[in-house]
Amino acid sequence: MSQLPYKIDEKAPDAAEFNSLREKVGWGSLDLVLAKSSLEHSLYHVVIREGVRLIGMARVVGDGYLYFYVQDVVVDPKYQGQGIASRLMDSIESYLAKTAKPGATVGLFAARGKEGFYRRYGYLERNGEPLGKGMCRFIRHTLSQ
Protein backbone atom coordinates (compact mmCIF):
# COMPACT_ATOMS: atom_id res chain seq x y z
CA MET A 1 0.00 0.00 0.00
CA SER A 2 2.92 2.36 0.47
CA GLN A 3 3.04 2.92 -3.30
CA LEU A 4 -0.63 3.85 -3.49
CA PRO A 5 -1.75 7.50 -3.18
CA TYR A 6 -3.24 7.04 0.28
CA LYS A 7 -2.49 8.92 3.48
CA ILE A 8 -2.75 7.34 6.92
CA ASP A 9 -3.43 9.57 9.92
CA GLU A 10 -4.35 9.20 13.60
CA LYS A 11 -7.04 11.89 13.62
CA ALA A 12 -10.73 11.17 14.03
CA PRO A 13 -12.96 11.62 10.99
CA ASP A 14 -15.74 14.14 11.33
CA ALA A 15 -19.21 12.83 12.12
CA ALA A 16 -20.61 13.39 8.62
CA GLU A 17 -17.86 11.45 6.85
CA PHE A 18 -18.06 8.73 9.52
CA ASN A 19 -21.77 8.41 8.74
CA SER A 20 -21.10 8.39 5.00
CA LEU A 21 -18.61 5.53 5.34
CA ARG A 22 -21.04 3.61 7.59
CA GLU A 23 -23.76 3.98 4.96
CA LYS A 24 -21.48 2.74 2.18
CA VAL A 25 -20.97 -0.57 3.99
CA GLY A 26 -24.63 -0.94 4.99
CA TRP A 27 -24.33 -0.02 8.67
CA GLY A 28 -26.73 2.92 8.40
CA SER A 29 -26.20 6.42 9.71
CA LEU A 30 -26.31 7.80 13.22
CA ASP A 31 -27.56 11.03 14.69
CA LEU A 32 -24.67 13.45 14.03
CA VAL A 33 -24.47 14.63 17.65
CA LEU A 34 -24.30 11.01 18.83
CA ALA A 35 -21.67 10.14 16.20
CA LYS A 36 -19.57 13.21 17.08
CA SER A 37 -19.69 12.44 20.81
CA SER A 38 -18.79 8.80 20.24
CA LEU A 39 -15.81 9.71 18.06
CA GLU A 40 -14.62 12.31 20.59
CA HIS A 41 -14.63 9.73 23.39
CA SER A 42 -12.63 7.09 21.54
CA LEU A 43 -9.18 6.18 22.81
CA TYR A 44 -7.50 5.97 19.41
CA HIS A 45 -8.33 6.65 15.77
CA VAL A 46 -6.69 5.72 12.51
CA VAL A 47 -7.97 6.84 9.12
CA ILE A 48 -6.86 6.33 5.55
CA ARG A 49 -7.67 8.93 2.93
CA GLU A 50 -7.30 9.30 -0.78
CA GLY A 51 -6.75 13.03 -0.99
CA VAL A 52 -9.40 14.39 1.39
CA ARG A 53 -11.80 11.45 0.87
CA LEU A 54 -12.14 9.08 3.83
CA ILE A 55 -11.77 5.55 2.47
CA GLY A 56 -11.07 3.61 5.66
CA MET A 57 -11.07 3.99 9.40
CA ALA A 58 -10.80 2.11 12.66
CA ARG A 59 -10.80 3.09 16.30
CA VAL A 60 -10.33 1.77 19.81
CA VAL A 61 -12.79 2.45 22.60
CA GLY A 62 -12.72 1.39 26.25
CA ASP A 63 -11.40 2.56 29.59
CA GLY A 64 -7.79 2.76 28.40
CA TYR A 65 -6.49 0.54 31.18
CA LEU A 66 -8.15 -2.83 31.54
CA TYR A 67 -10.56 -2.97 28.61
CA PHE A 68 -9.97 -2.07 24.98
CA TYR A 69 -12.40 -2.70 22.16
CA VAL A 70 -11.55 -2.55 18.45
CA GLN A 71 -14.44 -0.76 16.79
CA ASP A 72 -15.49 0.36 13.30
CA VAL A 73 -12.82 -1.27 11.16
CA VAL A 74 -14.41 -0.19 7.91
CA VAL A 75 -13.24 0.33 4.32
CA ASP A 76 -15.22 1.89 1.49
CA PRO A 77 -16.34 -1.03 -0.73
CA LYS A 78 -14.67 0.59 -3.78
CA TYR A 79 -11.30 0.27 -2.02
CA GLN A 80 -11.63 -3.15 -0.40
CA GLY A 81 -9.13 -5.85 -1.30
CA GLN A 82 -6.16 -3.43 -1.42
CA GLY A 83 -4.74 -4.09 2.06
CA ILE A 84 -6.32 -1.03 3.62
CA ALA A 85 -7.96 -2.95 6.49
CA SER A 86 -4.60 -4.57 7.22
CA ARG A 87 -2.96 -1.15 7.45
CA LEU A 88 -5.70 0.00 9.81
CA MET A 89 -5.27 -3.07 12.02
CA ASP A 90 -1.48 -2.74 11.98
CA SER A 91 -1.90 0.77 13.39
CA ILE A 92 -4.41 -0.46 15.99
CA GLU A 93 -2.06 -3.26 17.05
CA SER A 94 0.84 -0.82 17.33
CA TYR A 95 -1.27 1.43 19.58
CA LEU A 96 -2.33 -1.53 21.72
CA ALA A 97 1.26 -2.80 22.03
CA LYS A 98 2.25 0.57 23.54
CA THR A 99 -0.87 1.10 25.64
CA ALA A 100 -2.42 -2.17 26.86
CA LYS A 101 -0.62 -3.59 29.89
CA PRO A 102 -0.50 -7.23 31.03
CA GLY A 103 -3.93 -8.27 32.30
CA ALA A 104 -5.82 -6.07 29.84
CA THR A 105 -8.48 -7.53 27.53
CA VAL A 106 -8.94 -6.51 23.90
CA GLY A 107 -12.26 -7.42 22.30
CA LEU A 108 -14.02 -6.98 19.00
CA PHE A 109 -17.04 -8.16 17.06
CA ALA A 110 -16.08 -9.49 13.64
CA ALA A 111 -18.56 -9.18 10.80
CA ARG A 112 -19.71 -12.58 9.60
CA GLY A 113 -17.06 -14.07 7.34
CA LYS A 114 -14.29 -11.73 8.55
CA GLU A 115 -13.17 -13.85 11.51
CA GLY A 116 -10.12 -15.16 9.62
CA PHE A 117 -8.86 -11.62 9.07
CA TYR A 118 -8.79 -10.98 12.83
CA ARG A 119 -7.31 -14.41 13.62
CA ARG A 120 -4.16 -13.19 11.85
CA TYR A 121 -3.78 -10.67 14.67
CA GLY A 122 -4.24 -13.24 17.44
CA TYR A 123 -7.95 -12.76 18.12
CA LEU A 124 -9.84 -15.89 19.12
CA GLU A 125 -13.42 -16.79 18.40
CA ARG A 126 -15.50 -17.39 21.51
CA ASN A 127 -17.07 -20.75 20.80
CA GLY A 128 -18.48 -21.10 24.29
CA GLU A 129 -15.53 -22.86 25.93
CA PRO A 130 -14.25 -21.76 28.42
CA LEU A 131 -15.44 -18.12 28.33
CA GLY A 132 -18.94 -18.39 26.90
CA LYS A 133 -19.93 -17.13 23.47
CA GLY A 134 -20.25 -13.47 24.36
CA MET A 135 -23.36 -11.41 23.93
CA CYS A 136 -24.43 -7.93 22.91
CA ARG A 137 -27.56 -5.80 22.94
CA PHE A 138 -28.42 -3.01 20.51
CA ILE A 139 -30.35 -0.04 21.87
CA ARG A 140 -33.01 0.82 19.28
CA HIS A 141 -35.05 3.23 21.42
CA THR A 142 -34.68 5.42 24.48
CA LEU A 143 -34.52 3.36 27.65
CA SER A 144 -36.94 4.27 30.43
CA GLN A 145 -35.46 5.36 33.74
TrEMBL record:
Enumerate the GO terms in the molecular function aspect: acyltransferase activity, transferring groups other than amino-acyl groups
Q: Domain (N-acetyltransferase): give its ranges.
A: 6-129
In its UniProt entry, what is this protein called?
Answer: GNAT family N-acetyltransferase
